[in-house]
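thoughts on both lines:
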Amino acid sequence: MRGRLERRTWRHDPTVYATPRLRRACSYDVFFPDPLGDEVFDLPADVAAVMSEAEREVLELNHLADPALKSLSRLLLRTESIASSKVEGMHADIRSVARAEARRSLGRSISRQVAEIIANIDAMQKGVDQVATSDLLTPQELCEIHEALMSQGIIPLNPGKIRDRQNWIGGNDTNPCGAAYVPPPPEEVPALMEDLGAFCNSDLHPPLVQAAIAHAQFETIHPFDDGNGRTGRALLQVLLRRRGLAPEFVPPVSIVFHKRRDSYIRGLTDFRDGRVGDWLLLFGEAMAQAAQLALSYRHLVSDLQEFWRERVRESGNPRSDAAAWSVIDALPAFPAVTVAAAADAIGRSEQNVRNAFEQLEDAGVLSRIGSSRRYRVWEPRGLLDLISELENGMLPRAESD
């Protein structure tokens, strides 16, 4: 076991309402995890082989990146963050999320649940773009990611603040007796988070091994009142970028974790119980599967863009420097797109982009959503279908006319 259990007694707080059964004193086991320190994890040959193969898959995904498909990185990042929300039980149709994100950019109101999922996307983007490039990864950076993730919640629970009370997983909401897991008490958390930061800043282990262990340790510490799962999966993305394993494309591993949720939870339990190899084996297989899935969709998105270009050529073949071609390059980042968002993405004027949208709409590349003349949003043909299949972990199908 990577730590120790301590038996404690829970006494009911009379200021908190509870049924008579839950007001009785009861016993529970709280877990005190071992710090990571400078521990070196020796991997069995089969585990080392799986982790090495997974790293090759992630590297292949990133080495095939090209300027025209750079916008695909945001598609994969948003898919990862939405899937991470699903692991936590937050569900929303991909079209609803995409359209809500576009409406929000136009200043329109959206539902609180979708706003929280979009905050998850924004926080994941912040983690990869900012925290991943910081000199050191500290508990403060993780608090910043958590704050961005949780600030849009229906009932935000101390966003960006390390917990100062006992929490637990499973059981009931009144006491930890009967919980599936009780993390370390709050007074232990700051030192454990400093230790985790030091581990994340070291290079003692290969990138994927480091990311897997750091994620499992973070979930073991459970440092926040809520949102630990989403923050811990954001940490994965940060470490993959910091170590240079995924500089362009982040494999959407939460898609695999969502489909194999029971195995994912069991793997984290294996880590706490000292079966680190079992956790690494599961993690490596999930990461390899996520990279392969993303690679398949990378090729399909490229094919879809060529399909769009051919439709434009058939409808009038604009000049080679026309904004329509640049918009097509950027569209994979926008399952639902506005003129302002596209103009910002390609560095052209909104009037140029508005003209390009008319050309793309005439060619059947863009479809206008709704009839509002003031709040105009478009969808790229076929893109949401690809993303929906990707989020479901399905083997992709090529776009056909």
Summary: The radius of gyration is 23 Å. The domain at 300-391 is CATH 1.10.10.10 (Arc Repressor Mutant, subunit A). The beta strands are 3-10, 26-33, 366-369, 377-380. The first strand starts at residue 3 and ends at 10.
